[in-house]
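Tip: read the tokens left to right.
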């Protein structure tokens, strides 16, 4: 069992022994596309994800930046929502903060694409559809010890497409019951638990 961004995932013994992404890219004949399978046992049920979230928001992704992890074996991507609509925040305001101003929110997820020696190296999570710039999201976030915000695995990530809910996490769970629901009805249900 390996751990990435504080989240457990399974890696086959063969894959685990293949070295860093730079080493693997050097051995490949072209671009390198990798997929990881997250450990389902680490997934929180939807209602528990909401109760444990430090920040619950809605907004449009306006920036993303991918990088290799310090050990060189994985990729993480930071996504920024410049003007989030915050529904729940468990963080107390800092002295001097303007309570009417909501700062941009950046959160980190496993996966992304980086260039290594001229080759595109991509990592994706099998059970999670990709997030892209311009996508409107409803996101549950948890703060981690290093100051970053992470999407808790389980059901913390939804796209709002044409005012309807699209779960971006594809494993079974209560969150899938909201697929196709009106986004305002969904928000009302979720925020009134």
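Filled-in amino acids:
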């Amino acid at each position: 069992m390996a751990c990435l961004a504080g989240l457990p995932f399974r890696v086959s013994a063969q894959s685990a022994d293949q070295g860093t992404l730079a080493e693997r890219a050097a051995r490949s004949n072209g671009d390198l596309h990798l997929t990881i399978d997250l450990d389902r046992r680490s997934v929180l049920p939807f209602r528990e994800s909401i109760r444990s979230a430090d920040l619950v928001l809605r907004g449009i992704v306006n920036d993303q930046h991918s990088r290799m992890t310090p050990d060189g074996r994985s990729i993480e991507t930071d996504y920024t929502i410049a003007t989030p609509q915050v529904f729940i925040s468990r963080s107390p305001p800092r002295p001097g903060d303007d309570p009417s101003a909501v700062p941009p929110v950046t959160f980190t997820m496993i996966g992304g694409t980086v260039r290594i020696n001229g080759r595109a190296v991509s990592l994706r999570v099998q059970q999670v559809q990709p997030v892209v710039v311009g996508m409107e999201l409803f996101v549950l976030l948890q703060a981690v010890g290093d100051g970053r915000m992470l999407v808790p695995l389980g059901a913390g990530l939804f796209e709002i497409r044409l005012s309807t809910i699209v779960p971006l996490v594809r494993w079974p769970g209560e969150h899938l019951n909201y697929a196709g629901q009106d986004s305002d009805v969904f928000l009302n249900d979720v925020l009134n638990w």
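The longest helix spans residues 183-191. Residues 83 and 102 are 7 Å apart (CA to CA).
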